[in-house]
Amino acid sequence: MILPLLEQLRPHYEELRRRLLYSLAAVAGCSALAWLCIDQLAAFALSPLLAHTHPGKLVYTHLTDALLSYLKLALLCGAAASFPFLLYQVWLFAAPALLAHEKRLARRIVLWSSGLFLAGGLFAFFIVLPNTLAFFMSYAGGHLQPMLKLDLYLAFAARLVFAFAIAFEIPFLMVMAAAAGLVRREYFRSNRKAFYLAIAGLAFLLAASDPTATALLALPLFGLYEAGIIAMRVFVREEQAAAGP
User: Which of 150, 152, 177, 211 might form a disulfide with 58, Cβ 3.0–4.6 angstroms?
Assistant: First the structure.
């Protein structure tokens, strides 16, 4: 019985394998292009720090630190640039199994989630990151001289941008869950305390256990959670939400 089942699933495995190869090729190609202009990308990534809070230069303490940091930056930029193509590959893999109305819903989900992800990343890079750096660098002066490492700064910036890009999906996911009938419209309000604890734990992990950074990240997440509750009242009809558990 197992062999016939595997034979039936083989076309799906082949299709998945092809989509994964295309996705890896896209990330590799975009990363290679990013490497060609890595100096400009590095200057752009460092601009919130160097232009607003840190007039000096960053340092690296191991011979390979700069090279590895640039490689990671090129890979991250390549993955970000190829993100629409990756979503398109997911769509091509899933589309044959979807009905017409499901395809329309999937397109809306991909469009809105991609837009919110991009908006969260841009908001973090241009607004949150400079203000966060200004707060942390305000302790410099007197007997304190900051000597920031390149790899640690890039990791901090990437983690912050990624965290806010994911966080901006919270209201959308809450609305979609209620609209699909997975939960009642009042579910998130009645379980606010549990979700607040989960958000605080997530912010603690993303902020690398730093209490100040945790607070700076958790407070906007709380606001997005409340925005999701308000959005559900606006966009989700009562009869839709009533289908949930």
Answer: 150
- Name the pTM for this structure: 0.75
Q: Exposed, middle or buried: residue 157 (CB in 10 Å: 0-12, 13-18, 19+)?
A: buried
Q: How far is CA 116 from CA 21, 85, 171, 174, in A?
A: 27, 17, 10, 13
Residues in the chain: 245
Helix axes 83-94, 65-81, angle to 10 degrees: 50
DSSP the chain: -HHHHHHHHHHHHHHHHHHHHHHHHHHHHHHHHHHHTHHHHHHHHHHHHHHHT--S--B-SSTTHHHHHHHHHHHHHHHHHTHHHHHHHHHHHHGGGS-HHHHHHHHHHHHHHHHHHHHHHHHIIIIIHHHHHHHHHTT-BTTB----BHHHHHHHHHHHHHHHHHHTTHHHHHHHHHHTTSS-TTHHHHTHHHHHHHHHHHHHHHTTT-HHHHHHHHHHHHHHHHHHHHHHHHHS-HHHHTT--
Summarised one tens digit per residue, pLDDT across range 180-201 is 677 777 888 889 999 999 888 8
Tokens of 137: 């660098």
Q: Is the pLDDT of residue 239 over 60?
A: no
**Opening angle at CA 194, ends 188 and 195, nearest 5:** 55
